[in-house]
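Below sits the subject:
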Amino acid sequence: MSVRAVRMGKRKSTKVTATSLRGIKDPRERFIARLFDRTLKQGWREADDLFELFPPASFMVALEGNRHLRVKILTDAVGIPKKIATRRSVVAACEDVQLAVEEGITNAEALLEILPLSIVVGTLDINRLWIFSVEGDWVARASRSSSARKVAVERIQLIIESAVAEGLVSMQDIARGISFEQMAQQVSIEQLQDVFVHAMNAACEDGQLDSAALLGMVDVDTLLADIPLEHTWTNVVMDLVASAGEFPQSPDDLAALPKPTIYRRHASVWPASEDVEDDAMEVTDDELDLSGDAEAETSADWVQSLAAQSGTGVSEPTSVESTRRRSVTKKLEEMGRLPPSHEYLSLAILRSMVKAYDEMKRRRTKASRARGVRECFDNDAHLKSALLALLELLNPALDVDDASDTSFLVDVFVREEYTLWKQSKNGGGGSSNGSSDRRSLHVGPHPPPLPLGGR
């Protein structure tokens, strides 16, 4: 199966099982799990409709405490390399997922295929999941055709059966909601006769009637199919089930719900102008704001905010920001030092890379170069992300993904650059002393060596 097929995967069309409900203890959540899962599997709603109630970025906020699933979404649904995904903060992951959806790289089905049902109902707002499962004009459309009515009856039956199964309401509640008069008009003569005989026998024996046994004689599915759907919808689904579960019953209730929480960047400090020519956008070192920490979990450049119901809450990069990024990546590309995963690195990190290489060219010893590299980055999180990306470019055979010591990474990075320069100086034959100190194993084409000197 192709990567894209995985990212845009389809959910299997099977009924909700005890296994899929495992780990869900709250009756309201179990009810919604049954309803939501069946709604998708029967094709009554498209998965992407979920984004109308939950912006894509809000999925990552909901998984703020579940790093494993955040990484799995970024790798399997978005396509970010694992070594980068494991270092993405929640706020960065919000932007990744939002952009991936906007660009058609992934969709809601792919996200839901990764997320267990217990996680969906346990982290997303179940009131909104209820709305997703029941909203629409399908009750009104039931009168237009027999097929539309059949689907509407099936959906109402699902709601009632799920509510009874999870103890939100009882069959006695359902019978009272429908009304005994309405039931008497719809059930068959044979069923009425059975109920009458049972009632009379019970009255003669001990004077006590078993309401559950009486209702068991009535074919509820057939009854619901024959009773006007608007009556069942209003008197049973809304007045009983929604009330018992404390779910929204009107548009006003929906409007009163808290909006999904997401994270987004502050507005850019640079004025966006559509009239600025690209040639006029060359950026000097001093023009870049490098104080942001877009990769750190506690970054001051990110704030929590409420998204509009139909919006994403994640601001688009301005044309100015895009031009600045192009300028920086162009410099790295000209040096042969643009990492394959550069699109997942922040502008601040890319800018610091350029500064680091400028420092390395000016300094004459390995120790001095290592200090210079460190001084060019705002923090260890930026430094680590940059070095891992650059080492992947310089020497893919190196296994440093699990390295946590940034000093070690800096030393490896400086050594790799020095080795490339030394090999070039000696005509590609290794270091001048036979390379007894060489501990790396280069594979594939090398990036061009930098004009380093010293030792």
